[in-house]
């Protein structure tokens, strides 16, 4: 069995990370002068609230997953079961739904975006339930599975956040609060994506080590 080839499809977050962090850009319509002062306070509060709810990633996600040379009696069978799970149609649909959410948000389709957010949240919850039902006993395989779920969940949380705040992420170039939010969002988004990419690399390293161990 070529475990390593199948592990190439392990990570669920690649397509999500590609879609994450993109904010729209639109020209602003001119407002009457008397409306500007009235809107400044509510505008600032709106962006502060959005920024306060940004889904920060746990730096521990990027820590190495230690894989020993010792095989467990159930390791190969559980590895095959885990590979089947991570390459299943259910797993692939998570990434597709994340991309669809980003597309709807970027098109300004608010109702459809909210509906897709709910679908994605429900799908991710069911996916985690399916993972728990695998009842993986091998501690190393379970560690890889848990980290995979944590990383995919963090990426999905960013997508859900982007969908929820799609209007704020459509930047008004004449609004100083909007521009400040755009910069703060990009900074936070970049940091989160760096953490998730580093976490992906650690999962891939651990998956490669498991593949080598059980293919020998």
Describe this structure in words.
The chain has eight helices and two strands, in the order ααβαααααβα. The protein is mainly α and 216 residues long. The protein has a domain at 74-216. Strands 1-2 form a two-stranded parallel sheet. Helix 3 runs parallel beside helix 8, helix 5 packs antiparallel against helix 6 (110-133) and helix 5 packs parallel to helix 7 (139-164). It is elongated. Residues 1-38 have low confidence and may be disordered.
Highlighted features:
single chain; 216 residues; mainly alpha; 8 helices; 70% helix; 3% strand; Lipoprotein; coiled coil
N to C succession of SSEs: HHEHHHHHEH
Q: How widely separated are the two ends?
A: 10 Å
How many β-strands, per DSSP?
Answer: 2
Task: Give the mean pLDDT.
Answer: 78
Low-confidence stretches: 1-38
Contiguous helical run count: 8
Give the overall form: elongated
Question: Main beta sheet: strand number and arrangement?
Answer: 2 strands, parallel
Question: How are strands sequenced across the largest beta sheet?
Answer: 1-2
Query: Helix proportion of residues, in percent?
Result: 55-70%
What structural class is derived from the secondary structure elements? Answer: mainly alpha
Strand content: under 5%
Q: Output the radius of gyration.
A: 21 Å
